[in-house]
Amino acid sequence: MESTVEPAEGNKVKVSVEVPADDFEREVDAAFKRMAKEVRLPGFRPGKVPRKVLEARLGTEAARNDALQHALPDYYAKAIADHEVDAIAPPEIDITAGQEDGDVTFDAVVEVRPEVEVGGYSSLRVVIDGPDATDEDVDERIEHLREQFSTLETVDRPAAEGDTATIDITGSRDDEPLDGLTAEDYQYRVGAGNVVPELDESLAGAKVGDILTFSSEHPGDGEPVDFRVLVKEVQATVLPDLDDDFASQASEVDTLDELRADLTRRIAEVKLQQARMALREGTGDALGELVEDDPPEALVEGEMQTRLQDLALRLQAQGIDLGDYLRATGQDPDAFREDLRTAAAKAVRVDLALRAVATAEGIEVDDEELDAEIASVAERVGQTPRKVREQFEHNGQIPLVRSDVRTRKAMEWVLERVEVVDPDGGPIDRDALLADDDADTDPEQDS
């Protein structure tokens, strides 16, 4: 088999393949054997009808067409592998000779992954929140703890925001109480805003014994609802004192200083991981913006389908249908698909940019790195590296694995050179973020 590749119109190439008649004859013979299993002739067992008998009865045209149908995809796959054609869509195949006899020739026009050029990738600037725990962070966390360990104290004054009012509330329409909007002895935090806005407005300044009436829209269907509220008790929130007793009650340490130190450490750990993820995401965003042209629709659609299948599989493992998931999360299917498309297009841009970086900087993947990647996959799936390699080779996925490692290496190359600053423009130690980084380094996932 011989093959050539030449540019075609648009972002496509034309792969021309020629298969000698003698080579193709083996495919025709295989086609006759397949046909023998389907044909029933008197005096012959199924699958044992000789080729000459089939030729006499059926002719060679049917077998040759069957051979073309079965063999052309393999010939095409070998040709693009030999020429390292990075096809991103199914080919359009035109058989130019050999349908009746002789050498078989065909042309396959296929869209390929574009090679983009990006500039400025070695001097990107990414803005993220700093990884350090500030006094404000610790103070905010302590206030949350004080809220958790607060108590309620009955007061003889009008209700104010932050107080807890015990109320009887009736939401009705046409004098009929509505489920979910009617309750007795309901304890409501004034200002919480989790029923209707008018409830908070009416309770602010109300006293025990007051009867409040107002109308509002139903939080579910938006239709008018009449409310009647009886204020039965007003309680103030009493926060615990900031002392060692509070620290020992709210945590496993004994003093307030120890509590602040413990919270500082915990917050810093979380913010460090958040900063690491933000650095990768921000770098991916910046790289994607360097790609000026719109990515090919075939790549975007392929990425969309991959993401959709991954989500469907995760939901299926939990016994959840995708449609049920969208309804439960209040997502419109069309809007969901549009968001998915946006994310897919973004991921494709990042991938194209990283491939461009790898090409420009001569980043390649040697056999040792490929072996390490296969060993890592094998460990994750609980198989031997040899078995995983055999599966990759059988499915023709070795080039894909090598490409994935190459783009990850390109991302690391860029990350080691990016300038990292906080929202005020202050420098952030990039090397500290990259050191022992256990964050996901898959550029498509990060994007």
Automatic annotation (TrEMBL):
The residue ranges of the Trigger factor ribosome-binding bacterial domain are 1-145
Q: Which Gene3D superfamilies does this UniProt record tie to the protein?
A: 3.10.50.40, Trigger factor ribosome-binding domain, Trigger factor, C-terminal domain
| Domain Trigger factor C-terminal, first and last residues per copy | 255-416
Residues annotated as domain PPIase FKBP-type: 157-214
- Pfam families in the cross-refs: FKBP_C (PF00254), Trigger_C (PF05698), Trigger_N (PF05697)
Q: Looking at the record, which segments are called Disordered?
A: 422-447
As its record notes, the protein acts as a catalyst of:
[protein]-peptidylproline (omega=180) = [protein]-peptidylproline (omega=0)
Q: Ranges of Acidic residues compositional bias?
A: 434-447
What does this chain do? Involved in protein export. Acts as a chaperone by maintaining the newly synthesized protein in an open conformation. Functions as a peptidyl-prolyl cis-trans isomerase.
Protein name from the UniProt record:
Trigger factor
